[in-house]
Amino acid sequence: xxxxxxxxxxxxxxxxxxxxxxxxxxxxxxxxxxxxxxxxxxxxxxxxxxxxxxxxxxxxxxxxxxxxxxxxxxxxxxxxxxxxxxxxxxxxxxxxxxxxxxxxxxxxxxxxxxxxxxxxxxxxxxxxxxxxxxxxxxxxxxxxxxxxxxxxxxxxxxxxxxxxxxxxxxxx
Length: 172
Prior knowledge:
Blueprint: H1 2-16, E1 30-31, E2 36-38, E3 44-45, E4 53-59, H2 68-77, E5 84-91, H3 99-112, E6 117-121, H4 125-130, E7 137-142, E8 148-153, H5 158-170
Parallel strand pairs: 4-5, 5-6
Antiparallel strand pairs: 1-3, 2-6, 4-7, 7-8
């Protein structure tokens, strides 16, 4: 009985996180004005995910620390800036926290990760358009052409972090 319940939960969660398949470029999404955008106030478009290897963290602020180990592992690699970029898209609609409180946290994160681009998604655009998991911490890596080379919902364990690093290195 326990195995059946576990299998059912795994099946249900696989439907919840249905990011575009590996090797595909997701639908173009632009966040600007009332939809969100860069923390600096500028618009952001997923069309920018080309020319380098990108790792995108799609984060519910309530789970913001879930993949700190992955962030630290990426930071420790010291990938060349001309070949690698990290991006954190904050799912602002997924939390009860007010936007001003999240903005304060983002300023602190920016100090710890100065090379990361921070973007706010005010209305779950990536959940709707890319079918990312809501209320979680998703990690997606893109090659230089903007195609997905790695996708994971939730916390990355040590093996998944190693896999992510290997995929990035293979695409540089």
